[in-house]
User: Fold these one by one.
Assistant:
Number 1:
Amino acid sequence: MREKVIRAILDSGENFISGEQLSKELGISRTAIWKHINALREEGYNIESVNKKGYRLAEKPYDILSPENISHNLSTEFIGKNIIHFDTIDSTNDYAKEIGNKVNGGTLIISEQQTKGKGRLGRSWNSKSGDGIWMSLIIKPKIEPYKAPFLTLVAGASIIKALDHLGVDVSIKWPNDIILNNRKICGILTELSAEMERVNYIVIGIGINIKTINFPNEIKEKATSLYKEGYKLSRVDIVRQFCIEFEKLYKAYILDGNKEKTLEICRDYSAIIGKQVYIIKNNKKELVECIDINENGNLIIKENNGEIKEIISGEVSIRGVKGYV
């Protein structure tokens, strides 16, 4: 019922909606409405109440990652239409894998905190309460499993376009790191459940550093956040814009077989194409030149001997010559 109350208030916009009207629409007493309003205020909603007028939002709830806020008037067909929110969880990806077969594609799991957040290659991901966006998207494309890795690039391109739309100049370090001022601001972890010839579901885990100022010593030279770089953006706006951008690129790839828009974004916003970087595999480090991203989303490099090679993401890490990029 509390969700219905806040939806009604969100729908009313700048206009007041009376307790009597809410009572009639929702079929509960005005006293119950008042209790729900107070509970919503405790959750962070700035709800104004005026005698004989009713209730309205005094300000837009920019930072409350509730399903109601994110999905309100969200112009997507299915991405983000079902949202599961937690105050804390071990890992949104792990939970997504538990429910992957039971929910619709496009379901988004989001948590204020992760106690066991994870990145690629088994690394941990620092996920403090309220500091960032920690979320996992469940999708169910009708594709062969070998086509699934390209969706990591779709997610990366979607984050790039979402942040670019909101005025942040970011780049992408192939295949799954979003970079701001030469430091990592976002990571993507894609996990697959599949049979021989079909995908059951894909989980795309995304962690975006929003408010963190002080990072642990082991990552402080290569990690940053929007706030640290001077961008005070709404977490709700970022999630909503990501859903919009992802659905466009996802439908182009899955329904039309069109990879070009995703590849164009990943090339145009690349942090490594045209640069020398280290390719790291099995603790061996090789200096190469990044040339391009091919139509399959794989990285094309030139080795010191002039040989051209194709790199598949998998177990490969990339580091810049003078730093993270």
Note: The chain has three domains: 2-57, 67-268, 276-320.
Number 2:
Amino acid sequence: MRVFKRIQRAVNARILKRWGHSSIKKAIWNEEFSSGQWDYLEHTSNDPIYDYLARYSHHGNVLDLGCGSSNTGNEMDASTYRSYTGVDISDSAIRKALTRAINNNRQLKNEYVCDDISSYVPRTRYDVILFRESIFYLPNYQIKKILNRYSSYLSHGGVFIVRMCDRRRHGSIVRLIETHHRVLEKSSLAEADIILVFR
């Protein structure tokens, strides 16, 4: 019975993270980050995403939508970007990200904003707008509209980079991107992982 309740709670949380009101999403993510549920993901320095970021950031501005505790902002080579903005709905994640930035002496280059990525309004233009394991938390019917809105915040020559851990499960998102955007690179990684670079 306990296992069934745990499974049911996980399924409910997954649905609410995608379809719930911002306040509900925030509460779920705060609980998960505060409990340490995502701590195991805090060391990803060997992830191939960093090669893509170095290649496309052009020593410019990077916007990381759904940054969590900011692996990206703390693990990417600091010489490859001018400024980094991480956005996450969880203030628990943002607090962890800020602490990590201070510990890594990146507090002058990195900033963090607690906001819902579906409605966040950037203050500048970016060379890279990154969705690293976050785009699939948006309802599919909103993704095209959200990408179109964020495209106005890309600098001249700027790109979106989307990284997903399961290209088969999220095939509809891959098809949506390929249909409505110009894909510059599409890399299938180990197992089912995928990285898409597009405008």
Note: The chain has a mean pLDDT of 91.
